[in-house]
Each structure stands twice: as C-alpha cells, then as structure tokens.
Design brief:
The chain is an alpha+beta fold and 276 residues long. The protein is built from 9 helices and 9 strands. 11% of the residues are buried.
C-alpha cells in the first residue's frame, strides 16, 4: 500500500460520521421525517405521531422547513416508527423517514478530543523508538507490516465506507430516489450499489514502475541523502532517509540509487542540495 492509498484512508476516516459512546442519549435513536407540508404545526404534528402509537421522546424542526427530527427512547421504537412513517400519509403527502445521525454531545466531544490527544502522544512516543528503516516504510508504505490479505480487507472496508457516505449524500440531494435507495441499501450492506470483490495483485513486492526520490539531508543535516522524506515539508519535516528497506520498488532501481557515480553526478550538478 502506497502513501496515496493511505491518504484515501485518512480522508475517508476524517469525514466519517461521528461515533458516540454507548451511554444513553435520545439523540442516538433519531429519524428525519421528510416531505411534510410547509405549513404544518408543531402541536398538530405531535398529536398526529401520538395517534400512530409511536413511542417518541421529542420533536425538533427548523423554522420554515418541510422536515422534522423525531427522537425515540430505544432502537426498537425507532425501527417501528421507521416502518410506520414510510407507509403513512400526512395531510395528503407521503411521508419519508430516514435514519439521522446523532447531534454531537459537547461532553462526549470533549472526552473524544482528550482521547485523541492521548493517542497522538502515544503514537509519537512509539515513533521515536522506531529505526530509520521502519520509519521510512511507515512513511511510504504504511501497511508494509500487515498480512497482504488483511491489507485487502482493510482497503475493501475503506471503499465500503466511501460508498455508504456517497449513499447518504445521494439521499440528501435527490429525494426522488428515496424508496429505490432504501431497497439498494437493504441489499448491499447500506451501500447504493453492489461492491465487487477486491482482486489481489499477483505481484506484492517490487511493483513500482516509476520511482521519484528526494534529494536532501539526514536528520542532523550532516549528510546528503537520496531517498524518501519521512514527513511533509509543511509539517516542518526535512529529513530524508535512504530507501533501501522499502519493498515497493524493484531491485534494479534500488541498486541504481546505491551507485556512487549516480550520487556523485547529482551532487556535482546540484551545488546546493534542494531541501524544499
């Protein structure tokens, strides 16, 4: 797995729906009820829901909106309401109920941020104890120390997350496909379409046919290095490490970088080493 694939994983993770702790809050069990008449009243709508024998906790709706948020005591109550509302008309209009994400709880957010800080500190401490060979592999091929089949499983899960997020956004921008989309989600694990099985590559190592190297300094800037940068320049990292431990490019290129004539030629042409 290359650095570009790692970026996709981080991107997906950074945009995923927030996961709240399992302690009780009515926000966990919430539905968004769409296709309401523009002039519906809160009190009348509350009585209407009560007439359907729905075990709801509270109702919230934006001013002038044609939708409302209804929260429930537990998952069973929400599931029952989901089925009933999608088979019910209100003032002549067919209602549409969809699962809604919980609003972030300020206390839980604070705890989450504290946990993330602890994890970041732990990650930094672990990184400091790594060898240069381990660091450069983590930077260029983050899954280098994971079984290949597990790599495929992780990549498949990343694509599933991406498709579920696309499905969620499709429902928001095109209400006309609501019932079709619900059917697709039921058939394809919450996704809008079928995801084919990930095809394993017959070549696991030495697969790169294009290699780009950075010319820079080692950590204490006492030695010129041709290899890979350990971090991004914008984060303040200039350190370059020799690439020999990496398994994603072929032996021919590895041997070429080792040749002293190659380094001598570069240093002769480039008087001042490029560091940014």
């Amino acid at each position: 797995m290359d650095q570009s694939e790692s970026t996709l994983t981080e991107s997906i993770d950074s945009h995923s729906e927030p996961k709240l702790e399992t302690e009780y809050t009515s926000e966990i069990f919430k539905l968004e009820v769409k296709n309401l008449p523009s002039n519906f009243g809160f009190g009348v709508f509350k009585k209407f829901l009560a007439s359907l024998n729905l075990n709801f906790v509270k109702i919230k709706f934006p001013t002038g909106g044609s939708f409302a948020f209804v929260t429930f005591k537990d998952e069973k109550s929400r599931e029952e309401a989901f089925k009933v509302l999608n088979e019910t008309k209100y003032k002549g209009k067919q209602l549409q109920a969809v699962y809604s994400k919980a609003a972030p709880d300020p206390i839980l957010n604070k705890r989450k941020n504290e946990t993330l800080d602890d994890q970041q500190n732990l990650k930094q401490a672990k990184t400091e104890n790594l060898t240069l060979e381990e660091k450069v592999q983590n930077s260029t091929t983050p899954l280098w120390n994971i079984n290949y089949q597990k790599q495929l499983d992780q990549k498949t899960n990343c694509i599933k997350q991406l498709l579920r997020k696309c499905t969620f956004k499709m429902d928001k921008v095109n209400e006309g496909i609501f019932f079709w989309l619900q059917k697709q989600k039921d058939q394809h694990e919450g996704m809008c379409c079928k995801l084919l099985e990930t095809v394993a590559s017959p070549v696991v190592d030495d697969y790169r046919n294009k290699c780009e190297f950075t010319i820079g300094f080692n950590q204490d800037e006492t030695k010129t290095v041709v290899g890979f940068r350990l971090g991004e320049y914008k984060t303040g990292s200039n350190e370059v490490v020799e690439p020999y431990a990496c398994k994603n490019f072929p032996d021919q290129m590895r041997s070429f970088v080792k040749v002293k004539i190659f380094k001598f030629y570069l240093l002769k042409i480039i008087r001042n080493v490029v560091t940014k």
